[in-house]
Amino acid sequence: MIKVHFFDYGCGVLDVEGELGITEEACEFLIKNIAGLSLDCTDCAYDTEDNDIYWFSADNEAECANKIEALIKKHIRDGSNMKYKISITSDHSWYD
What we know:
Helix content: 25-40%
Number of strands: 4
Strand order of the largest sheet: 2-3-1-4
């Protein structure tokens, strides 16, 4: 399972799509641009609106995780305070 966690703690409401400069939902954008990736579920840490967590499944998790990293780096807007963490995990825990 690939966990993608976007966050900007204390910002109020995080606009992941705005920070990436995209017009579609972030999960849809990643699925559309990375072959073999499928969304498993979404969540947020601490039930706040300053972060979003997506869990994806893929046949080759390591390869897809690297492609996610490259795609996010390419699209994140200059001066963005949004951070992100990509990890491979065995469950849907928001921590790791």
